[in-house]
Amino acid sequence: MASIDLNSDLGESFGAWRLGDDEAMLTLVTSANVACGFHAGDPTTLLGTCRSAAQRAVRIGAQVGYRDLAGFGRRFIDIAPADLTADVIYQIGGLDALAQTVGSAVGYVKPHGALYNAIVHHREQARAVVAAVVAYDPTLPVLGLPGSVFLAEAEAAGLRTVAEAFADRGYTPTGELVPRGLPGAVLADPEVVAERVLRMVEHGEIEAVEGTVLGAQPESVCVHGDSPSAVAMAAAIRARLDGAGVRVGPFV
What we know:
Layout: E1 3-10, H1 22-25, E2 31-35, H2 43-55, E3 59-64, H3 81-101, E4 106-111, H4 113-118, H5 123-136, E5 142-144, H6 149-156, E6 161-166, H7 190-203, E7 205-207, E8 213-215, E9 220-222, H8 230-243, E10 247-248
Parallel strand pairs: 1-2, 1-9, 1-10, 2-3, 3-4, 5-6, 6-9
Antiparallel strand pairs: 7-8
Helix pairs in contact: 3-5, 5-6, 7-8
């Protein structure tokens, strides 16, 4: 039986600013990429998200990023590698402490936003993130874009690497994500997205924005929790996968 993990970026509200519907998403996904306070999320929000995830047996991942609340972590920062390593250790440890108080723990690490995209090619920053995971807990898997230097560096360091695909993001012909703000960067139709995910799982392929068919064999598929139709998309994906007999479950 084919199987796939569904993950989503959660815990991104901050104080009075509410973003997404974590409670609804946690009934649909099997892994939660929980913000760690640098790009989004205050401690109370993060604790509540961890508690809800633990109650539903959803795996908790540390979504580490640049220290960029104002930009939601979507702006590249030319940070020294040693500082980035320290920042990532700090983020993993903080979220892990919150998760442990509700009977769970951080089970994997996934970079967020601009950091995720930077370390597709930026080897120094990729090594800095890998060094942080190795220093904190070398048994933690890392999620990343297939073909990225991040996954290559992680594998070389002995970490388990998990190839990820995006349900609701456009791909370039080279297999990278279309930059936000460009046509085709973000998909919003739940039925189109659901069919796209099923195609990934059953046929190992995904169509780029200009029609090129790319190979895709992800262990986990992300649907962003902050998009307006996030819950509808996640529900459509689950319904399509369940209807096709695909097992949806966590990779850890």
